[in-house]
Structures
1.
Amino acid sequence: MIRRLYDWTLSHATAPYALWALAFVAFIESSVFPIPPDLLMIPMIIAAPRRAFLIAGVATLASVLGGLLGYAIGMFAFDSIGQPVLTALGKGDAVAAFNTRFNDVGFWAVLVAGLTPFPYKVITIMSGWTAMPLGTFMVTSLIARGLRFFVIAALLWRFGTPIKQFIEKRLGLVFTLFCVILVGGFFLVRYL
């Protein structure tokens, strides 16, 4: 099943609509969607390494724009939308304490969340709720998301064929490691 899903994703990674799908996923992942855009971006780059930096640019731009939606949710609709999203991620009860800590380290929180498996949407919503200066939020988001997506793109562009061969030989292991990282990210959000 994993092999079929991998092959299906690779076959669609070069489709004319692939960049639009990536942009959509990157946009909504920054505010409400739990699946990271890396799941689309990596096979797209493996399938078309010459487009690696275009793909990273689309993911970065869409993610930062989606971060604005998360910021707006936090600022204007925290009680109706933001709080339920954070509650679903296990952070609903820690909002007040988090607000105080967040204001002390806001720049670094956005930077770390933008670079790591930590759900970026938590930070985008909290940035709006705590009224982080929009300029700081945008610049930090652009740096963090750009760094994350362009480093992945550069590595896949440079080492794409060996990485593709490794993934294809050890697809089960790669899938398991990815799931462990994804679950670990959610675990960190829930219990930290």
2.
Amino acid sequence: MLEVEGLSVFHGSVRALDGVSLEVRQGELVALVGSNGAGKSTLLRTLSGLHAPGAGSIRYMGRDIAALRPPRRVEAGIAHVPEGRRVFAPLTVEDNLMLGAYSRKEKRDRLAQELEQVYALFPILRDKRSLAAGTLSGGQQQMLAIGRALMGKPRLLLLDEPSMGLAPLLIAEVFNVVRRLQKQGMTILIVEQNATAALELADYGYVLEAGRVTRAGEGFALCNDEEVRRAYLGA
């Protein structure tokens, strides 16, 4: 579904990504782990069109999308749940969710059915549907951000640090949702500070260090890699 080859990205004169290559197959959950400042969020932002690549290619469903604007990538089926949630605080929960479907042309009754699917996934959002998004807890805002992305009917979901700043019980709840989406066939690329949880879920994983991929392999294999465990898993 996604093929990245030789991708380099610059922030001014600083090379944030240096020749990154990776792939995500349809239906896979792929984890990207690494230390702070390794370039993980930059990679997701480049995939969604928020950063321009300096070199390399990005192919999605066989099509080169490196020059495609962010709205066109959303229409093509790429949804990005950014680090820090970025909900529209003054708007209601339901308005935030409906904004996720802004690029779709389906009739409103069809969108209403999919809204109900999001509420089934996150029942707390149904209870708070009329409240301003800014009044939600951090965990609830994370659920809202994921739900908003799902309203776009993505084929590829990019998740950036979904557990950041959450209490352990909420982290478990978010990962349960990620697991459910994976089992339903959603293709997911996840950047996650909780490397153990991400790699245990992942079909495949990549380790990013200083803008370069230094290790790659099946999720369970990276979990058992001594250097990865020592550097990122606290073992």
